[in-house]
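Q: Can someone sanity-check these two? First one:
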Amino acid sequence: QVQLVESGGGLVQPGGSLRLSCGASGFSISNYDIKWYRQAPGKEREYVATMTSDNGNNVYADAVTGRFTISRDNVKNTVYLQMNSLKPDDTAVYYCHAYQYGSLVVRGQGTQVTVSS
C-alpha cells in the first residue's frame, strides 16, 4: 500500500523555523515528483514547492521563495520542507503529494503549522 505521512508541524513564533517531513512507504520517492501544498482555514489549497524525480531544479511558489527549501533523502525515503523566517500567513495544514507522469498517486494526511506570537 502506497502511503505518505507528514510530520514536523507545530506552533512557532514569527521569524522561527520548522522542518516538515514527508515519509513514503510502498514506493520509492526517487521515482516520483513530490509536491507540497498548504491550506489555511477558509482558503483554497495553495501550491508551495516541488521536488522533481529527476533531480532537476526544485520549484517554489513566490510566497515562499528564499525562505523554504525542499530536499530529499532517498535512503530514508523522505522529503523535507525546511521553512525559515516563518510568517503568520504561513499558518496552514501542509500536505505532501506524490505525482508520477503528471498524475497524483497519493497524498498525505497533513500536518498543522501555526505561526503566532
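And here is the second, same format, sequence then C-alpha cells:
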Amino acid sequence: QVQLVESGGGLVQPGGSLRLSCVASGSRRNINTMGWYRRTPEKEREYVAAITRGGDASVADSVKGRFTISRDNAKNTIYLQMTNLRPEDTAVYYCRVYNELGAPVGSWGQGTQVIVSS
C-alpha cells in the first residue's frame, strides 16, 4: 500500500508563487509516474501535471509556462512549483501515483488547499 501526503498549500495573492510537495511512503517499488491533480467545488478533479521516474514531464495547457513539476526519486517526492498564480488556480491539489502499466497505486492523499485571492 502506498500513502501519499501533500503539503505546501496556502493563501497567496494573484501573481504570487507556491511550491507544493507530495511524499509517497509505503510500498513504493512499483511506482513509475507521479502526478498532480486539482479539484474545486465547481469542477471534477482535473489533471495538472505528471512526471515519470525517468524525468519525462508534462503539464496541462491551462498551467503551461506557469507551473513546473519535478521529482526527487531518492526521496519519493514530487514538487509542483507554481508561479504567476491566478484566482482560477484556487483548488485542492492532490497527487496520484501509477505503476509502469499506468494503473493507479494506492489511494488519493488528503490534498492541500491553494487559495489565490487578494
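A (reply): Looked at the second one. The chain has a mean pLDDT of 94. DSSP finds no helices and eleven strands in the chain.
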